[in-house]
Design goal:
Strand order of the largest sheet: 2-1-5-4-3
Shape: elongated
CATH topology of the largest domain: Hypothetical protein af1432
Radius of gyration: 37 Å
CATH superfamily of the largest domain: Hypothetical protein af1432
Number of domains: 5
Length: 735
């Protein structure tokens, strides 16, 4: 936690070294953190608390927790729970200006020098819609902090067993995380130190203290570490977990032991550090006295190029936007005697931009005068990339590269002000996307979404904000744009979509986007009403377009089925003629006959979702291929259910491969459990298939096909329908 106008203070005489270690972790959170004594007085707070409540730091630490509780319920029982095990509860807090907000509070007691204080982490939960995303982001951030921390961190049991450790902890000890968890602390501790270390460990876990100890690496070398231990639980001492923070102080110890070693030896040690170690003058150009060999890998320049600023100064490597910032932060660190820690970007000799982390401190002479700066600069480019990826996912849609709903809502709220009026909104929805997904697969549907998104980006202006706000939904925000100009932009998008569709031969693109537009011209108009008005107009347009678009897509699906399967238009016509003849003999209704005609054409529509290699394979299918082929009734059912026009025959499509004896698929229906129209199409489809040549066999004669149908009556086929079928076919033969 960085306090801008005050020095961090913890009661009960906590050492400055412990505070510094706490600060390293606290900097990573935006949550409100309060420290409260047992009387309820606030004794410390972080900058997030200052920002949230509107008090200055001095004001905040002068008040009681009751002063910021709008729903005050604070009992001794709560305090006992917090001290013993910690509690989590919801409350309402009050800001300095009197406004209130809902919070979630984590309350945990901390033992410090045999006294207790309450540590409170407060989270604003006003916006519950993003709670899960925020929690996920925080977990990812914690994992990033844990994994990328320059401090070794490990979670341990009371007996010293290591539960988990971060890469830096493993790196310091020269072992893998898995190895550390398996070995435990005793195996990696110098044998002669074990008893003393165990004693100090017990003291540390009791008092939340730190200790210095020696570790042994696999190669037998010694690592000096400064170990700070903090308890994470007080529930059950046998189940308590402790956070162990480890700093590699080997070099510091060795430096102390070898205080009088030559400058050459010191330089050699520094040169073996990762990144670039340096010592420089306190002047305008940071004139280098010493630069380690890591300089070349980091910057592309040799150490001798920078020493004495022979070829260039390090200041020239710092990107211009950071130069003054770095100088100001160093000046602050020198004045306060603090450690300098900052991140900024540099440009290497090869022209590459790298993000670096610099940590250093001022070196003072005997008279207290600042004489030089020493520090280490390491490459953190990969870590920054990961952070950028996280930030990208927070505000962008990965598929389309448009903004996401979260960003759109955020900007809509921010821009809902007088200076942005007139403010126009365009709402769009892709027509028939579900049908395309079911018919051609989600990959094809994604192609359509990307194509529409690209058209939208090409049609809007530079400062317009376009977002994918749902699966098939798009929203566009137009600042200082009246309704005339907004409708021009909407027409431009529609025209571009129509042009694209007209040029596309893909069946999946025989659809379009429905758009609606509304404009806010007065401050008094709620932005929610504008959004609702745009949506209503979009749905009206969608209603007008939907039927023709659906018919277009279905027509394309039919074409695709004929192209990829062995079926022909003639096959469909023969099925229609034969099935409707049987239907008339069975005295079916006109509606049933119409459905039977549609079923004759589209009963195998699900085959468009099966690989061409399987459908058109010459010879017998493998078991795996048969499984894939047998899924086409289910695929066809999903396609039909997504279309109003095909909805009446959806169940017939699903059941057209069921057998009368119950051995069919996909449901294993039996007898009259199978819908009548599915039983009819099962007979006529089998007959037509047997009397036509296929890639894997020659056609049967009509007589042999009829005999085969008759032989399977009562097992594969409905015997009553078989009788009517034979009569119908016989009449046709006689004619």
């Amino acid at each position: 936690m960085k306090h801008n106008n005050h020095k961090f203070k913890v009661p009960y005489d906590i050492t400055e070294e412990s505070i510094n270690k706490y600060l390293k972790l606290e900097e990573f959170t935006d949550n409100i953190i309060l420290f409260i004594d047992m009387e309820g007085r606030i004794v410390d707070a972080n900058n997030a608390a200052i920002k949230a409540y509107g008090y200055s730091y001095e004001e905040l630490i002068s008040i009681n927790i009751a002063d910021i509780r709008a729903d005050w319920v604070y009992t001794e029982e709560q305090m006992k729970l917090a001290i013993n095990a910690g509690i989590l509860f919801k409350a309402k807090h009050r800001r300095k200006d009197g406004s209130c907000f809902d919070v979630e509070v984590s309350f945990l007691g901390c033992a410090m020098n045999n006294k207790h204080i309450l540590a409170s982490i407060v989270r604003d939960i006003a916006d519950r819609n993003s709670a899960e995303e925020k929690l996920k982001a925080e977990k990812e951030l914690f994992r990033t902090v844990f994994e990328q921390s320059p401090i070794g961190m490990a979670f341990c049991k009371a007996n010293g067993e290591i539960i988990d450790a971060n890469p830096m902890h493993a790196e310091i000890l020269g072992r893998s995380v898995t190895e550390l968890k398996r070995l435990g602390w005793k195996y990696i501790t110098l044998p002669e130190d074990i008893n003393e270390n165990l004693k100090r460990y017990k003291e540390c876990i009791t008092k939340a203290d730190s200790t210095t100890k020696r570790y042994i690496k696999p190669d037998g070398s010694i690592v000096w570490g400064n170990l700070t231990i903090a308890s994470l639980s007080f529930e059950n001492r046998s189940k308590q977990i402790y956070l162990c923070m480890l700093e590699d102080i080997t070099e510091r110890i060795e430096a102390e032991e070898k205080l009088h070693e030559s400058e050459r030896t010191r330089a050699m040690i520094l040169s073996n550090l990762p990144g670039m170690a340096y010592r420089c003058n306190i002047d305008k150009e940071w004139t280098m006295q010493f630069v380690s060999d890591g300089c070349y890998e980091l910057t592309g320049y040799k150490p001798e190029d920078l020493v004495g600023n022979k070829e260039l100064s390090f200041n020239e490597l710092i990107d211009p936007e950071f130069r003054e910032y770095v100088r100001i932060k160093w000046e602050e660190a020198i004045i306060l005697g603090d450690v300098f820690r900052e991140e900024y970007s540099i440009t290497t000799a090869m022209g590459d931009v790298k993000w670096v982390y610099e940590q250093g401190r001022c070196v003072y002479g005997e008279n207290g005068r600042a004489i030089a700066l020493e520090g280490l600069i390491i490459d953190i480019t990969e870590r920054k990339k990961k952070e950028d990826e996280i930030n990208y996912l927070n505000y962008y849609d990965v598929l389309t590269d448009l903004y996401n709903r979260r960003f759109f809502v955020k900007r809509l709220i921010e821009l809902d002000e007088k200076s942005c009026l007139p403010l126009s909104v365009i709402i769009g929805d892709i027509n028939g996307l579900k049908l395309i997904n079911d018919a051609f697969g989600h990959a094809q549907g994604d192609r359509l979404i990307v194509a529409i998104a690209r058209i939208i980006k090409d049609c809007i202006r530079k400062n317009d904000i376009a977002a994918r706000t749902g699966g098939d939904d798009f929203s566009i925000l137009l600042l200082e744009t009246d309704d005339i100009e907004a409708y021009e932009i909407m027409d431009r998008i529609e025209s571009a979509c129509n042009e694209y569709i007209s040029k596309s031969n893909d069946a999946m693109f025989k659809t379009n986007i429905s758009l609606g537009c509304a404009t806010k011209i007065s401050e008094k108009e709620p932005i929610e009403d504008i959004i609702k008005s745009a949506e209503d107009r979009m749905y009206l347009n969608k209603l007008l377009q939907n039927k023709s678009l659906h018919n277009s897509v279905i027509s394309s699906i039919k074409t695709t089925l004929l192209e990829k399967s062995q079926e022909t238009e003639e096959h469909a016509l023969r099925l229609i003629k034969l099935s409707t003849s049987i239907g008339r003999k069975m005295k079916l209704t006109v509606e049933q006959l119409n459905e039977l005609e549609l079923l004759s054409t589209l009963h195998d529509i699900g085959k468009i979702g099966v690989s061409d290699n399987v459908i058109n394979k010459p010879g017998k299918l493998t078991c795996e291929e048969r499984v894939l082929m047998n899924k086409h009734p289910e695929i066809g059912y999903r396609i039909a259910m997504a279309s109003h026009e095909l909805l009446p025959i959806a169940n017939y499509i699903l059941c057209h491969h069921e057998r009368y004896d119950g051995n069919g698929y996909p449901q294993g229906l039996k007898g009259e459990e199978i819908p009548l129209l599915a039983r009819i199409i099962s007979v006529v489809d089998a007959y037509d298939a047997m009397t036509e040549d296929r890639s894997y066999r020659k056609a049967m004669t009509m007589e042999n096909a009829i005999r085969e149908i008759k032989r399977n009556a009562g097992t594969q086929f409905d015997p009553e329908i078989v009788k009517i079928f034979i009569d119908t076919v016989s009449e046709a033969i006689d004619l």
